[in-house]
Amino acid sequence: xxxxxxxxxxxxxxxxxxxxxxxxxxxxxxxxxxxxxxxxxxxxxxxxxxxxxxxxxxxxxxxxxxxxxxxxxxxxxxxxxxxxxxxxxxxxxxxxxxxxxxxxxxxxxxxxxxxxxxxxxxxxxxxxxxxxxxxxxxxxxxxxxx
Amino acid sequence: xxxxxxxxxxxxxxxxxxxxxxxxxxxxxxxxxxxxxxxxxxxxxxxxxxxxxxxxxxxxxxxxxxxxxxxxxxxxxxxxxxxxxxxxxxxxxxxxxxxxxxxxxxxxxxxxxxxxxxxxxxxxxxxxxxxxxxxxxxxxxxxxxxxxxxxxxxxxxxxxxxxxxxxxxxxxxxxxxxxxxxxxxxxxxxxxxxxxxxxxxxxxxxxxxxxxxxxxxxxxxxxxxxxxxxxxxxxxxxxxxxxxxxxxxxxxxxxxxxxxxxxxxxxxxxxxxxxxxxxxxxxxxxxxxxxxxxxxxxxxxxxxxxxxxxxxxxxxxxxxxxxxxxxxxxxxxxxxxxxxxxxxxxxxxxxxxxxxxxxxxxxxxxxxxxxxxxxxxxxxxxxxxxxxxxxxxxxxxxxxxxxxxxxxxxxxxxxxxxxxxxxxxxxxxxxxxxxxxxxxxxxxxxxxxxxxxxxxxxxxxxxxxxxxxxxxxxxxxxxxxxxxxxxxxxxxxxxxxxxxx
Lengths: 146, 501
Description:
The complex is a heterodimer of chains A (146) and B (501).
Chain A: H1 2-23, H2 35-56, H3 67-90, H4 93-107, H5 111-132, H6 142-145
Chain B: H1 2-14, H2 17-35, H3 41-55, H4 59-84, H5 95-141, H6 146-164, H7 168-183, E1 185-186, E2 193-194, H8 208-227, H9 245-250, H10 252-267, H11 272-288, H12 299-315, H13 317-323, H14 329-340, H15 347-352, H16 354-375, H17 379-385, H18 390-409, H19 412-430, H20 436-459, H21 470-489
Antiparallel strand pairs in B: 1-2
Helix pairs in contact in B: 1-16, 2-4, 2-16, 3-4, 3-8, 3-14, 3-18, 4-5, 4-12, 4-14, 4-16, 5-10, 5-12, 5-13, 5-16, 6-7, 6-20, 6-21, 7-20, 8-18, 8-19, 10-11, 10-12, 11-12, 14-20, 18-19
């Protein structure tokens, strides 16, 4: 009940915000009868109506996991965001060891297999991408090897 | 005989040693992708698209490889259904009902071979159906103007929304999320940026591959963190694999009927392979009656959903190739592949680029034979693959997704977007909101708006133009019926949960 209502409320506000920003779209002199605003506003309107339906007629709640699982998922998200930033400046191998290792640990919390998984995936995938598929990956940051 | 000449053209392309090798590699990878729980046809194909793109394959080779993976994944899904009682992908859900009981009775090998043969029959008949039906539909599609296309896109969203979720409001929200995302970027006709919030990265719009990989592959990681990768150990023994001729012979009519049902379900826009296998199983169950013993591990209960599922996979290609409207989640991903390769599906594809279409059809036939040969004697190899634990598999899939998306643009921004889509996918699936309409919205949003605007230019702003021809009126009626009817049928047709493909 509550989950659907909260989600409906979020969607309602996003949809209204979407409509509001669609009204700000600049039209050019090359205009057609519909113009660039109408379709986004239509989408926003349909979303807002559906959100209202969801608020007034919610489904039963799903089984949300406990706080600890949410913590694990949050850690995974942070690791993935960090990985996205690190991939270019740090090369492939080092960030991948950490990202794959931590993800593995979040799925099955055993430190040593997770570490081996991280290292193995990092080196194995690098070899696969670089030599079997010929992608232009950089193994290490440039500064490290001089 | 036009078809034979076209087929000869197709085989002349698909039978070159290089494309044949690609088909075999694709079948092998596809079967593995389908077999691994948590890696279905949609996310498997989605992860591989950016990699195929960077490999620099030409359009036909890329298409051969990916359709082989697609068919292979449909075959592979049954392996984990039968051995683990976990569907390897969504359409294989119905196979668990009789496949696992049969395996626990010590007939795991028989179940695997029988389901492999049923898959072959379904896929083969569907490919033949595709050959016969697609050119005809392509000719009809020439009559479609922008108003009809707008109605057709609407039909796809409505039927998919009606089928894919238990709550119409939720699937409408999902479609709107996708369509709303598709609007971001520079407007095609006026050249003005829309809804970018001044962010330069968003000027080109959001790449649908980023969204697909995020929603399907990255979201899966969060689900495995939630479940801690439990419940993936093989509980049944697989002895020597022999061919159960008796079972195959006794299920031949079941396979034929199930293929027909599956093919028709696959053609309906938005229905897809899950519905195909579901309808095939249910219709065979009611034909067999109470004495049929469905649910206790009977051969017919394995043959029906597998033939239906693979036939629907072929049927779903018909609207995708002729109209550019995908019939399921995976064909939506294949449509993304075509768009990446700069091929526009639609009636003109059949006349302008017959080599692509018929090469594809020929390679489907080849892939199907390869898969049958591969799946019967080599089934033990694929069973070994199931032993890969989730805590190795999922990080690996994540890293491959990152490299694939990174190799598309080389920008960290796409990777961040992909993670954001992963979180969105997790929340949506938790709330029982289907993710396939989101993908469909992102893929078709631009075309849908273009169709509407072109229709309005033609009619000089008269909205009634949208309902001016019998075809478009028919499509509108079908769209409304497809959206509304499941609300009333829900009591009668009780659907298994979590069918999203």
